[in-house]
């Protein structure tokens, strides 16, 4: 798929070296089609890493996708150069009058923080409320998923100690769903979180469907029955070394973290992890964009408000 991004976005060079077709704005202007418009609210401190992971997962479809990145105005990232944010990111005020086919809200390192104590919580709520009329389909990821379940349905997260970290086997509960087209009956995916919601909480909400879960990791994928919201608690977009880097970071901080489960061969952190989640992850994101965004979004994007 040609992902339409700015010419100078750092992720562009990385993805092109992986033979992923990234289309610049100049080239996109010569194609007489309407690209899907996808907005990414990136709440992660590692902005460029997360940009690259998400763009990689949106890459395997013939559709043209125009991606815009959104940052919070009420909190400025301390881990990303200001020039990068100024060039590639917009604030909510700059997009609030627009309409989007898809919205992705990422995770954030806020496991043990109450939602109302998050510095930018009011802004996140405003964006989630805005999405009901301005976005056809929203993909909530990790902390973003917990925040969405709480805001839209009042489902509260609870702490999970020790932190869930590793690669876990999942079972698909809705095997005929287009979301899982091409999947095996079981799939592997990383988790990295210290919070959870229970299957009982999800099943008690009539507007939600539990799509996939793990015996060890619990709830993994949930969607609204109208297919306008997806809540993904696992990290199928993770790189091979993401959990390794998190483990090394926490070790250096003296946090004495547990080894990620089922990750390092022989539980030896000196050995390189073997990826067993990449294909399922690619299918998950591709199926979402193909079946739940492209197939159902209105051709006139302004009609999203009337859905």
UniProtKB/TrEMBL annotation:
A Pfam family it matches: HTS
Record bears the keyword Amino-acid biosynthesis: yes
UniProt-annotated binding residues for substrate: 163, 192, 249
Enzyme class, first EC level, given as a word: transferase
Pathway: Amino-acid biosynthesis; L-methionine biosynthesis via de novo pathway; O-acetyl-L-homoserine from L-homoserine: step 1/1
Highest taxon listed in the record's lineage: Bacteria
A GO MF term: homoserine O-succinyltransferase activity
Major location (coarse): cytoplasm
Keywords (A to Z) from UniProt: Acyltransferase, Amino-acid biosynthesis, Cytoplasm, Methionine biosynthesis, Transferase
Protein name: Homoserine O-acetyltransferase
Protein's organism: Eubacterium segne
């Amino acid at each position: 798929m040609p992902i339409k991004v700015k010419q100078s976005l750092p992720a562009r060079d990385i993805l092109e070296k992986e033979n992923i077709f990234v289309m610049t704005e100049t080239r996109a202007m010569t194609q007489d089609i309407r690209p899907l418009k996808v907005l990414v609210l990136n709440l992660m401190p590692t902005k460029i890493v997360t940009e690259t992971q998400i763009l990689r997962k949106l890459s395997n479809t013939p559709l043209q996708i125009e991606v815009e990145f959104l940052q919070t105005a009420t909190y400025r990232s301390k881990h990303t150069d200001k020039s990068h944010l100024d060039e590639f990111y917009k604030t909510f005020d700059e997009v609030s009058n627009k309409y989007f086919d898809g919205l992705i809200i990422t995770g954030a390192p806020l496991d043990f923080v109450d939602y109302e104590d998050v510095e930018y919580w009011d802004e996140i709520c405003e964006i989630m409320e805005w999405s009901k009329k301005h976005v056809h389909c929203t993909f909530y990821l990790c902390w973003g998923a917990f925040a969405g379940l709480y805001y839209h349905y009042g489902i509260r997260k609870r702490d999970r100690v020790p932190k869930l970290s590793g690669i876990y086997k999942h079972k698909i509960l809705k095997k005929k769903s287009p979301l899982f087209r091409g999947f095996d009956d079981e799939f592997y995916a990383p988790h990295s979180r210290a919070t959870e919601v229970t299957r009982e909480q999800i099943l008690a909400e009539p507007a939600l469907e539990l799509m996939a879960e793990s015996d060890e990791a619990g709830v993994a994928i949930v969607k609204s029955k109208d297919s306008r919201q997806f809540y993904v608690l696992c990290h199928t977009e993770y790189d091979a070394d993401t959990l390794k880097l998190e483990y090394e970071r926490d070790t250096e901080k003296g946090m004495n973290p547990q080894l990620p489960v089922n990750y390092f061969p022989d539980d030896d952190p000196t050995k390189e992890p073997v990826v067993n989640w990449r294909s399922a992850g690619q299918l998950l994101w591709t199926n979402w964009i193909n079946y739940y965004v492209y197939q159902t979004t209105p051709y006139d994007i302004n009609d999203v408000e009337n859905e």
